[in-house]
Request: fold
Amino acid sequence: MELKIQKTDKIIIIFYIFLAISLTVGIIYIASTFDTIEQSIRFPQPVTNVQNTVYIDVNQEEAFLIMTDIKNYPKVLPRNIISVNIINEIDNTVLAEYEVIEHGIRTKLLVEHTMYPYDKYIVEVVDGDAKGTKLMQDFTTFNTEIEKLPECDQSFDECTKIDSRVELDLKGLLSPFSYLPKRNLEHASNTVIQTFTDYMQLSDDKTRKIIDDLYREILLRPADQEAFVYWGSLLDSGAITVEEIRTEILNSNEKKYLLLSQESKKVEELDDETKKIIDDLYREILLRPADQEAFVYWGSLLESEKITKLELRKGILKSQEGVALKRYNVENTELIYDVFNVIYETSGPHYEEGVLLFDPRIDKNEFHKMVNKNKYLLDIEEITLDEVRLELEQLKETDMGIFFIDDLESVHEQFLDWQKRFVDKTHDFCPEEEGFDKAQCFCYACKWNIDW
Reply:
C-alpha cells in the first residue's frame, strides 16, 4: 500500500523541497525584520501514521490470501506496479522487489512481507529513503447472525474486518511527504485498500472475475458495471467465448488509445511539429490552446505511431469536452432539417425567428432520434451531410411513413381541440410585455405553425 503513498515523481519531490526551503527562508527573513517576536513560530509536525478500517463480505481466510498474494499485485494495481520479483521466501517471510511507476517515473523497491495466517500481515520497505515504513493489517471475523453490523451484508454468514495502519518513516528526498495534509495520505491509503477489497468482492462470481481479470490485464483497470452487464450476458448464454472477449478488448478503441506510463514522453521530448499539430487542433475544435497534459498524451501516442493525425483529430472531436462544445451548436441540426424538408417535401421543421416550427404530421419521437444520431455523427465528422441525404432518400423509398403519424384523423382532432381551447385566449397565457414573443408562449403555437 505504501507504494501508492510514496510518489517517486522527482518533479513533485523537488517542488515540495522548494516549498520547505521557501518557508524556512521566509520565516528567517520575517524574524530578521523585527527586534522581538511575541509568539513562538510553530513548525508543522510530520505525519507518522495513517489508519484505515474496512468491512468486506468475504470470509477471513479468503480475504487474507488475496491481500497476501504478492505475485498478483500487478493485476490488482496495474497502473502502479509493473512487476514483482520474489527474491527470497523463508517460512512466513517473503522478500520481493517491486518495479513501480508513478507519473511516468520508474523505480524499484525492496519490500519484506511477513504473514501470520490468517490474522496479521506486515509489509516493510527495507531499503532507500522509505526504509522502515510499514503497513500492518489485522483480520477479524464477525458472525453476521450474532453481530448486526451496518457495514456488513446480513445475507452473508461472515464478515471480515480489516484494520490497516501505516507507519511512515520517510527520509532524504521523501521526507517532505511526511508534511502533506494527513487527509491526503489517508485518501491515498483508502484508495489502495478499497482497490483490494473491490477485487476481493469478485471472488464468488466466476463470470465477473473472468471479465475483470481481462480488463486488468489488457486495459490496466477494473471492469465497470457496463462491462459486466454486456460481456457477462454474452458469456453466460454461450454466445461468446473468453478468447473472443479478449480479442474484442484488444481491438477496442480504449486499448488503442491506452498510453502506458513507460511510453509517455515529456513535453520537451516532443517534436515542435507534433506540438503544433496538437495545438492547432485544440484551437480549432476545443477553441483553446492545448495544455501540458494534452501534449504529453496525444504527442506520445502520435510519435509512438499508435495513432495517425486523422485519428488524433477524431479522438479530440469525440472527447467529452469536444462533444460538450458541440451540444448546443444548432448548425448541423439546421442542415439536417433542410435536407429532410427537401426530400420529404414538407414545410417543417424549421426555425423562424428562433422558434422551431413543426409539420403536425411528423412523428416527433422518430424524427428527433434520427436528428440526434446524425447530428452527433456530423459533429464528430464520422459522416458527411451527403451521406445523411442519401440515407434519408433510401428511407423514403423503403419506409416512407417512418417519420410520420399514421393516424391523421387523430392529428386533426388535436388541431380542433387546440382551436377550441386557445384561439382568442392568448391573453390568459401570455404576458402583455414589450418585446415578448407570443409564439413562444405555449407549444401549440410551434406545433401548428400559427401566425400570431
Notes: Residues 1-39, 425-452 have pLDDT under 50 and may be disordered. The chain is about 45% helix and 15% strand.
